[in-house]
Write a structure and sequence with these properties.
mainly beta; about 50% strand
Length: about 200
């Protein structure tokens, strides 16, 4: 049998901001054939690559990635033509974790400190709520191999919402923090360290 020729090939890759490929991302491809809409999905492979081939040209084709716990930029890519979309089309995406560390403050309570406690603030920059149950923040000195864990309270962080973890204090100087979402006795070093 003669293979069906491919008139449209949509492909690309999904990577994290550091270049690491993201596998098992669902790529939803919506094709418009002169008013008739068809939707299909494919997954990215271990190298973050995906491809979809079609034997016909289309009026427009939209590619949209999705994977639980991630947000993407761009959110989608649409190919449109006044006549038809054919040939090879490429749509690459970058995956971002929706919850990020937005602020770190060390040296709380020390002479001249702005705040009485160290703190770490998280922010949900995504488009969906994220359940923080079972999440931890980990702390280490700048060169130390030992990590200390702070378990976060099991709350759901809505889009645009902040989460405040109050940690240790080195003294009585500085203003009190707002009411935290959780508290840990871990002390952050004002001279450097790692937080993940």
């Amino acid at each position: 049998p003669t293979p069906t020729p491919i008139s449209l090939l949509i492909s690309g890759q999904v990577r994290e901001t550091n270049g690491t490929p993201v596998s098992n991302v669902t790529m939803t491809i919506t094709l418009n054939r002169m008013g008739t809409t068809e939707t299909t999905t494919t997954l990215t492979d271990a190298n973050g690559n995906y491809s979809y081939g079609d034997s016909g040209c289309v009026t427009s084709a939209k590619v949209e990635p999705s994977k639980l716990g991630l947000t993407f930029t761009p959110q989608s890519v649409t190919f449109v033509s006044s006549s038809s979309v054919c040939g090879t089309q490429t749509a690459n995406f970058t995956a971002f974790p929706p919850v990020v560390i937005s602020q770190i403050y060390a040296g709380g309570g020390e002479a001249g400190a702005t705040f009485a406690n160290d703190f770490v603030e998280l922010f949900n920059r995504g488009h969906a709520s994220v359940d923080l149950t079972g999440w931890t923040l980990q702390f280490s000195s700048a060169i130390g191999p030992t990590w200390q864990l702070a378990t976060l309270a099991g709350v759901t962080l809505a889009p645009g919402q902040h989460y405040l973890l109050r940690v240790a204090s080195a003294g009585a100087n500085g203003a009190a923090l707002p009411t935290p979402d959780s508290v840990s006795g871990i002390a952050l070093s004002p001279t450097g360290g790692k937080v993940v």
